[in-house]
Please model this.
Amino acid sequence: MGKIKIAKKDIWIDMTPMSDVMTLLLCFFMLTSTFLTPEPVKVNTPSSVSEVKVPENDVLNILIDPNGKIFVGTENKNNMLAMMQDVTDKFGITLNATQIKHFREDAMIGAPLSKFADYLNLEPDKMGEAIQTMGIPTDSIDGGMSEFQEWVKAAREANSDIKIAIKSDATTSYKVIKTVMSELQDMNENRYQLITNLKTSSEE
Model:
């Protein structure tokens, strides 16, 4: 008796709904994602139990690396440009179009005013290397405000509603952090946030 052949049927699966779902998910993540501002140095923040979220906009970030070098910046490029114009005008520093372009592309301010123009003359890839060896001085200028305070003041004048956040490495000397806090207090900037990592159960 011959074998009965069962007719094979092709299975067709409609992938249209899956494609629609994937497109919607992609759009969702693109619209809700926030891009982190690149930082000139890498810091590992200390852990804490605080769950207060730092605002994403209108924040002046003060970055302190493990060696105590200080950098400042904000995500708003218009405020950054206003800060630069304020400080350079006050100290008689003239920048050309190329230097201003390099400043716009820079993530944070970290060069002392004595080297500011020379720093902005560098190519962008060289700027990233050079800024790691610099940092904004906290020494007073002729008995007045320090360069760090001048940048904070310029940020406040550029945006009166700007908030201040300090981000330091877990190994940064407390003396340096205290100096930064004292500089802010001297300017009556007594409200600021400290950026930390959320402590995990294994660290308790």
